[in-house]
Each structure stands twice: as structure tokens, then as C-alpha cells.
């Protein structure tokens, strides 16, 4: 799918079929630090809108696993994404996944079909303020970071 996105957007970039080969590209560019992480948010915790690029080489998808139940273990703390719409204001997408849910989302941009073919829609993600309880997630980013 990553290669299909690059082709649709006329981007001269193809990803190898094996993750280890992709990590070799990261290491060649000095990106040696593994990026999977456990995130813990308590009351008042949040994460501003951002992109997890960490260097010149990045994979267009990442995922997050939700380890607590929304509305039971915590309140607030929604997963928020924004999509930059050309010549308009950004569109917000707010999700409340349940315990055990996994979300695959874009690291940087996604293709959107317009009247003249596909264009890049810039995306960011973050977490709204946790109002009560604790929220834990496992984030898996498929590229390594600069050390």
C-alpha cells in the first residue's frame, strides 16, 4: 500500500518488501534509534499535533494500540488527527478507540483524489487532554530515528 500511495502521488520512492531492508536505509542515513514506545498520560496529559518523522527516511504508516478502555479507565484523551485541506481550514478527526483496538494511520500525508488526480493531504496527530484516569498506548513507528 505504501508503494501504491507513492505511485498515485507521482513520488519517485519505493519501499522494500522486507522491514530489515528498510531499516538498513534508515541506518545508512544515521537513523539508528528504534522508535516503538509506550505512552502514558495521566490527568492533564496531552500530546500536541505532530508528525513522527525523526529523520530523512520515514515510512508512511505507523500504528497505535490502545491499552485502556475509553470512558472506563480514563476520560478525555481522544486521538486527534488533522487533515490540511487545500485553500481551506484544516479538518479535525477525533477518535475514541476501545481497549485492544489498533489504529493504522499516516505518518506525514495521504493521497486524496481531486478533480485533477491525486494530491497530498498533510496530516498530523495528537492526543486531547486527559480529564481523569490514565491512558496507555503502544506506538509502533516503522522507521528508526536519528540518535
Amino acid at each position: 500500500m505504501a508503494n501504491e500511495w507513492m505511485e498515485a502521488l507521482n513520488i519517485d520512492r519505493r519501499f522494500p518488501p522486507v522491514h530489515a531492508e528498510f531499516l538498513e536505509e534508515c541506518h545508512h542515513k544515521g537513523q539508528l534509534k528504534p522508535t516503538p514506545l509506550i505512552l502514558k498520560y495521566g490527568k492533564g496529559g496531552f500530546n500536541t499535533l505532530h508528525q513522527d518523522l525523526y529523520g530523512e527516511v520515514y515510512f508512511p504508516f505507523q500504528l497505535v494500540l490502545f491499552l485502556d478502555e475509553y470512558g472506563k479507565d480514563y476520560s478525555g484523551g481522544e486521538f486527534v488527527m488533522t487533515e490540511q485541506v487545500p485553500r481551506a481550514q484544516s479538518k479535525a478527526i477525533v477518535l475514541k478507540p476501545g481497549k485492544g483496538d489498533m489504529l493504522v494511520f499516516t505518518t506525514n500525508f495521504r493521497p486524496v483524489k481531486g478533480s485533477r488526480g491525486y494530491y497530498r493531504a498533510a496530516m498530523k496527530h495528537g492526543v486531547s487532554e486527559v480529564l481523569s484516569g490514565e491512558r496507555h498506548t503502544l506506538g509502533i513507528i516503522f522507521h528508526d530515528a536519528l540518535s
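The mean pLDDT is 96. The longest strand covers residues 117-127.
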